[in-house]
């Protein structure tokens, strides 16, 4: 990592962290953007729940659902900006980490279906029953708990990023070669997850969600739409 930071003209080693923090503190436009986003996160749901539908400042539920999606992709863009904009490391594999977090939450939603699936199996998701799986894979255990799924949303992508970054930077891989490796990592994960025997739904992915935190996915309260 030291050579990568040095090649981008930024201080190396421990100084790189202070450089990034100093750069972020001096970015007035970025600070205003973050404040605007925080204000929107707080005010928009309030405008939906507290103001009547005829009020000029009322925000429709559909708009809130779109805002939730926009904020999700904004987190992805922010991650790319921090790595590329402040450290000069171009990563083409952020989609892999984003997808791992999405799969972790999707596994929780699949476990919430229970016996309401097409095949009525209270333990196995429908695609596993269709593929003649006899028991739930070990890596699916625990995803019936929301707190565990939220923990895995952070830990699984973080663990992959740590291992990949350690091996790449320890080998002093940088520049375009690192970018190609991150892209290859994403493609390899895509091919692996598309295989039915991996236990992640294959090409169809994870579908037919029913509930989240006890609320129907088709009738989620506006205050939970950001989470959805």
TrEMBL record:
Keyword list, A-Z: Cell membrane, Membrane, Transmembrane, Transmembrane helix
Alphabetical list of InterPro entries matching this protein: ABC_transp_permease, LivM-like
Membrane topology summary: Multi-pass membrane protein
GO cellular component: plasma membrane
Major localization listed first in the record, in broad terms: membrane
Protein name in the entry: Urea ABC transporter permease protein UrtC
Keyword Hydrolase part of the UniProt annotation: no
Subcellular location: Cell inner membrane
Membrane-spanning ranges: 32-51, 71-104, 116-134, 146-169, 176-194
Any one GO MF annotation of this record: branched-chain amino acid transmembrane transporter activity
């Amino acid at each position: 990592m030291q050579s990568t930071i040095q090649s981008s003209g930024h201080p190396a080693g421990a100084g790189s962290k202070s450089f990034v923090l100093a750069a972020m503190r001096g970015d007035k436009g970025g600070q205003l953007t973050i404040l605007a986003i925080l204000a929107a996160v707080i005010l928009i749901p309030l405008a939906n729940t507290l103001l009547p539908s005829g009020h000029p400042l009322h925000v429709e539920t559909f708009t809130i659902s779109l805002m939730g999606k926009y904020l999700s992709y904004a987190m992805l863009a922010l991650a790319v900006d921090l790595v590329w904009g402040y450290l000069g490391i171009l990563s083409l594999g952020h989609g892999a980490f984003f997808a791992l977090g999405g799969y972790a939450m999707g596994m929780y939603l699949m476990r919430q279906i229970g016996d309401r699936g097409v095949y009525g199996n209270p333990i196995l998701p429908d695609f596993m029953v269709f593929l003649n799986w006899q028991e739930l894979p070990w890596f699916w255990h625990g995803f019936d708990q929301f707190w565990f799924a939220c923990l895995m949303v952070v830990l699984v992508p973080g663990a992959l990023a740590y291992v990949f970054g350690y091996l790449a930077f320890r080998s002093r891989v940088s520049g375009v070669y690192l970018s190609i490796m991150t892209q290859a990592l994403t493609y390899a994960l895509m091919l692996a997850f598309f295989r039915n025997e991996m236990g992640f739904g294959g090409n169809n992915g994870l579908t037919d969600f029913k509930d989240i935190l006890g609320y129907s996915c088709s009738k989620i309260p506006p205050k939970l739409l950001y989470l959805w």
